[in-house]
Structures are given as C-alpha cells and as structure tokens.
C-alpha cells in the first residue's frame, strides 16, 4: 500500500536501523523487508505523476462562468524527478504545440524555472541546450501531490499520487 | 472487406514448405479477425516480408535465422511454423479410410525443418528428432467413446456419424438434423495411454512431450477433431517416439482442417503475445495486440499528442508509449478505480523499461479539461452501457464525447480510431457530428466471439458547429 509522505522519513530511519541490526546480528529478514517496502514505494512513486507537459493542456473551462480557465496554478506539495529518454525530434516537434507562457508559469510554480527564456527564441530546434532543458521540464519533473488552482474561480483540483482529479461537481457545471 | 477464407490460399506460394529451401521456413501468425491487413503491414514494415492473409491469420516465408525478430511484433497473438499445407486433402468415404489418411499424413511434413525452428526458439538442448520410424500400421485404433465425449450438441457433423458410436448426449441430437454453422471447437485428443494397445507407444518414449491440438471446420466430415488429433498424434508418437502429455507438454503440434484444406504446424508461442502487458488487473482490459493495431491505424507521428478520453486501465496509452515513444500519450477516465488500475498497469511495465511518455488523469469524457485543439489523435475503446451523471445512456455519452473529442482535436490533420460494441449508438452519432468528423474506414473485428467495430474518423476543417451545442440541463440531459 502507498505510504503518505510524512511517513517517508520513518522509512529511512527504519532502513538505517535494520541495516545496523543486520550488520551486528546478521539478521537479514528485517532489512530485506524494509528494503522491499522502500523500493515498492519508490516504484509506485515513479509512476505517480503529473508531468508538466500534461499541465500545459489542462484547463478548468468546463466549469460554469469560467472564460479561459488556463493556465492552472500548480501548488505542489511534492515534486519528483525521473529519467526519461531524450528524443530530440519529439521535443522539437512538441514545442510549437505548447503554450509557452503557461510553461514558464508552471516551471515557476514547481521551482524549476531554470533558465527558460521568457520568449521562445527563433531557431530553437537547433538549440540542443534549450531542447534538453525543455525535455527535462516537460517530461522529467512530476508533481506527486498538490493541487491545480483555477485562475478565475480559485477552485482547487487535487493531485494525489500523481493523478490530477478534474471531475466537476453538479453545481459547478 | 473480410479477409479470405483459408481455403483460398495457394499452397504453392510458400517456399518455406519445401525441403529444398533449407534456410527458409513458413510462419503462420494469428491475429484478431478483422485486423489481418494491419498486421500484414506491420510484418512488411518490420520484417520486410509480404504476407498472405486469411481469416484470423497471416502467412509468410522468412529466413530461419530471422524468426526471433517475429516476436517483437506487436500486432499478432500467436506464432506457428507451418510444416505442410494441402489444399485438397480428399477425405475418403469411410471413417476408417479417413483415419488412415490422417495417420499417414504425419509422414508428409518436413519435420526436420519445423523442429529445428522449434528447437532454436525454445532452446531445447538436443535434437528432438533422434529416430525416425516408418509407419507400419494403417491407423490408430479409434476411440470414439473417448474422443466424442466433448463434442458439442451444436456440432454440424453429428448427423454424419454412425449412430452406433455416438455418446449418449449426442444421440438425441441426431434426430433433429439442424444445420448450424458452428465450428467444431479445437480439441485436444485424449490419448489415453492404455488405448492403441500400444506397448509400442511407450517403449522408446523419449524426446519432447507433445500434444496435438486439432481445429476442424466443415459440415461434411465424418469424424470429430479429437479423432483426427488421435490419428495424427498416434502417428507422430510412432514415427519419432515422443511421449504424449496433454498437460505438461513442451511441444504443441497444430492440425488444422477446414473442409478440404489441411495443414500442420508447430506452435512457437507458449502463451499468446497479448499477455505480455497484463498485470493481475488485466482481466477486463483490451488485448494489447488490438490496442497496437488501433494505434497503428492512427499512425501517430513524432511530437504528436495521443489521447484516450475513456481509458479504463490505460492499456491503449500504455501500448502507445511503448510502441510509439516519439508521441506523447495521455489517458483519462472518470472512474477512480480504473484510474488506479492504470497506475498499477503502468507501474508493472516501468519495472521492465524505464522510459514511458505517458500520463493519466481523472476526468469526465463529456467535459474534457483540455484546451481546444491540443490533441492530434484520439484512440479509444468506447464503453458499452456506461452512465453519465444521474441518468443517461450510451447514445448521449457517445454524442457528448464525440463533440468534446472534436473540440480538443486538431482540425484537418486530427484523427480518431474508436472501437465499440455498440454499433447503433456509434452510427447514429457519427451522422449527427459529420460536420466535425469525417467517416473513414470501418473494420469489423471478432473478439472472443463478440463482434465489434473499429471506426477511423478524420477531423474536418470546421472548428466547431453551432448547431451541435451540447446544452444540458442540470441533470446532465441533452436538450
């Protein structure tokens, strides 16, 4: 089962403690158990995701009285980095489809503004450095827990275990 | 546009069936009926082979050393190496003569070549063919008491069998000779060891444990599939000395009889290939090979965004991210459990392979929380009988979803590949939204006996149609 974030520190302590036990008493059982649990949660958190590329498309426009509902403000409680293979062709073709301002905004929200330029420069498709940064911010930064806030109504859509819940209530449509 | 029946195949076309072509073998790949052309395209693209298609399968010649490449294909379910094909078997008039002919048929195929392919595939340590004996008997002693036990009441050949041998449960049926078009299900011969009065059978039993799986279709046959399997298997046992084992077999030999078209093949897949993506949660998911074929029909290009607005367990986005990693795949479903299942499914695959450009969200497909024109491709297995809000039926769900899909999909270049069992709801709504979605091809497929249709739609140039507003009252009903 998935552990809430605040218990993560306890896992680390338990891991250290069991390593000590293992060292001194040659009892592997506890260590193995804790290591397994730890990796289990790591694996699960790897796929607990909302990538910023997805955020670039999400809106709250389905709500009544909302005009644009974009971009949603990310309030991230937990963010994680993962490794995704860099594909130059993918990134350079994705770029024109992105809402650049929304991307800058999202990057700021999660504290990953890095040095993304305010305006998309000409000839970006030849700028490998920029493409790699874009790759990282779009695909490798994942919001695990937090919420997405509608810019107009301030309604918060929860993100838990990396999945944003965009379902609206009866009175919101 | 159904694929031709297997009877139409020209058996002379395959070099792999001839012993003189030592380096080439003929393979049979099974595919969901209706998607043969798509599979043939994948074979052409990835293997460079030209396929001959028949219902539910494709055949081609391939160098034996390239056979391992075949297992990388995503559109096909099973792989078999064909040993022999006969298009005009000429079944004789009496049962005993039929048995004799089937028995002797086991001597005809190029077993050496077929078993070499089998041995390589499964890394069998020795040469499976250690001895080759001639067949001295006419045929195996028939055991209809055993072999006809599992014949179905719906079998079309019951009327052809002599009454004396029919088991009880089929005797009543013989009185009413209804013609049904049911296929006699493929059956495995129960080759009970004490039958065949064969101490011969057990003396030199060595080599791979095998069983025969026979599939028989045709209303004129005077024998059942189990009976054919018994004859063929008995001969194989006699010739090679391999032991029969119906449950723990290492070698599965297929005998396929369609009217007068008969072929024998050796199975190279222990499990169908669509099982590779499944987790324990996979029971209700769409087969990954069907997912692949649908995605292939949409042909996602590098940098495109592919969305499944009713993704269930996200099998389509998952397969997409594995096979078309240059596109970005997003799945969403309104049902929390399904979304959780998606996560688990993706997790399972991530443990094997790190990089999967896929994301999952929870949303209402009739109110997609996505910017207009952000998607290039929609691929979805549409639900049957789902409810929206407090009331509703499929027709309304499809209508509203089609509108939303149109809104988020790029005009002109955008396309949708949609699978549904509810043909009526789909056709009715495709007419309604024709200003937004242009109807392309439709393919009827057969999934485990149920027929469904895959529609390919193309986005028109029209951004939106004011006549198609999805105005709803609070209850979610469409006005």
TrEMBL record, chain A:
<dbReference type="GO" id="GO:0030488">
    <property type="term" value="P:tRNA methylation"/>
</dbReference>
<feature type="transmembrane region" description="Helical">
    <location>
        <begin position="23"/>
        <end position="47"/>
    </location>
</feature>
<dbReference type="InterPro" id="IPR005651">
    <property type="entry name" value="Trm112-like"/>
</dbReference>
<dbReference type="InterPro" id="IPR039127">
    <property type="entry name" value="Trm112"/>
</dbReference>
<dbReference type="Pfam" id="PF03966">
    <property type="entry name" value="Trm112p"/>
</dbReference>
<keyword id="KW-1133">Transmembrane helix</keyword>
<keyword id="KW-0812">Transmembrane</keyword>
<protein>
    <recommendedName>
        <fullName>Multifunctional methyltransferase subunit TRM112-like protein</fullName>
    </recommendedName>
</protein>
<comment type="similarity">
    <text>Belongs to the TRM112 family.</text>
</comment>
<dbReference type="GO" id="GO:0046982">
    <property type="term" value="F:protein heterodimerization activity"/>
</dbReference>
<dbReference type="GO" id="GO:0070476">
    <property type="term" value="P:rRNA (guanine-N7)-methylation"/>
</dbReference>
<keyword id="KW-0472">Membrane</keyword>
From TrEMBL, chain B:
<dbReference type="GO" id="GO:0030488">
    <property type="term" value="P:tRNA methylation"/>
</dbReference>
<dbReference type="InterPro" id="IPR029063">
    <property type="entry name" value="SAM-dependent_MTases_sf"/>
</dbReference>
<keyword id="KW-0808">Transferase</keyword>
<keyword id="KW-0489">Methyltransferase</keyword>
<keyword id="KW-0819">tRNA processing</keyword>
<dbReference type="GO" id="GO:0003723">
    <property type="term" value="F:RNA binding"/>
</dbReference>
<dbReference type="InterPro" id="IPR000241">
    <property type="entry name" value="RlmKL-like_Mtase"/>
</dbReference>
<feature type="domain" description="THUMP">
    <location>
        <begin position="145"/>
        <end position="268"/>
    </location>
</feature>
<protein>
    <recommendedName>
        <fullName>THUMP domain-containing protein</fullName>
    </recommendedName>
</protein>
<feature type="region of interest" description="Disordered">
    <location>
        <begin position="168"/>
        <end position="204"/>
    </location>
</feature>
<dbReference type="Pfam" id="PF02926">
    <property type="entry name" value="THUMP"/>
</dbReference>
<dbReference type="Pfam" id="PF01170">
    <property type="entry name" value="UPF0020"/>
</dbReference>
<dbReference type="GO" id="GO:0005737">
    <property type="term" value="C:cytoplasm"/>
</dbReference>
<keyword id="KW-0694">RNA-binding</keyword>
<dbReference type="InterPro" id="IPR004114">
    <property type="entry name" value="THUMP_dom"/>
</dbReference>
<dbReference type="GO" id="GO:0043527">
    <property type="term" value="C:tRNA methyltransferase complex"/>
</dbReference>
<dbReference type="GO" id="GO:0016423">
    <property type="term" value="F:tRNA (guanine) methyltransferase activity"/>
</dbReference>
